[in-house]
Amino acid sequence: MTEEIRWGVVGPGRIAEKVVADFAVVEGARAVAVASRSLQRAQDFAGRHGIERAHGSYADVLADPEVDVLYVATPHPQHHAIALAALRAGKALLVEKAFTATVAGAREVADLSRETGVFAMEAMWTRFQPAVVRLRELIAEGAIGEVRSVQADLGVQRDFDPTDRLFAKELGGGALLDLGVYVVSFAQMLLGDPDTVTATGSTFETGVDAEVSLLLGYADGRSATLMTSLRNALPGQARVFGTAGWIDVLPRFHHPQTIVLHRAGAEPEEITLPQLGGGYSHELIEVTECVRAGRGESAVMPLADTLAVQDVLEQASGQLGVTFAEDAAVL
């Protein structure tokens, strides 16, 4: 492994544009290649970001010997096949959330990562935000006692367009895989894996979920109440309730700068911790450091947590009659 960790981008879409810009503030990491099924699109992306090599197929970047890590930002159902091929090629992985389209697909990727010892992590940037890191520290210190409940919402209003990826079932559209993954991962981070999942909501005519409310239940009475939507905007706030106070995570909670600690009997304490760069830098730093150290996965975003979140998402979508499949033909 070279001292500099060399990254390749798979899928030069909207989110990749933002993530790649943050390499400018990540020490010891550099984006050196980009791959798309359209060579022109890859070349345009490479030109905008000063990336050396543009590949016109995913197979080409998998075979690129000058790439150590692949950042996968294709539509959700394509993650599974690309991730498996990358792990077999010895390429470490940062895979956009949702990690895959199905629990079975996620489990297969996690199993291969563990079997080969090649690093893999879901790109849940929320867990690495400085304000969220401080939130977890405060909870571990007992600042609000025992956490008993979590509330979180994340939604945007999008005009229905059956040709848009967000509404296309074959591309993993719908609110849950795009936005619901944030609220579920946040709750799972603080409460662990739920014992029960109850979902209610509606679907678009293309067969993907439009809005979902979830109740996650725990055998000891703890709970999470979560909302996600593509039908209407939601504040993007979160609140963590404990036996000795609560913490507000100010909008938008999935990349917050400010949390407010409410200790029982005390004045609120506002804590502001800005992100480095656009905020994606923190997950890039985590992967870079893990790969350099030879770790198989992240302690902050372990594969077990990703699998637990995928399970909740699949249970919730299933209760609405929505099912997804992995795209085996992407390569």
TrEMBL record:
Keywords: Oxidoreductase. Residues 5-121 form the Gfo/Idh/MocA-like oxidoreductase N-terminal domain. GO terms for molecular function: nucleotide binding; oxidoreductase activity. Signal peptide: none annotated. The keyword Oxidoreductase applies. The keyword DNA-binding does not apply. It comes from the Bacteria. Residues 133-247 form the GFO/IDH/MocA-like oxidoreductase domain. Belongs to the Gfo/Idh/MocA family. This is Gfo/Idh/MocA family oxidoreductase.
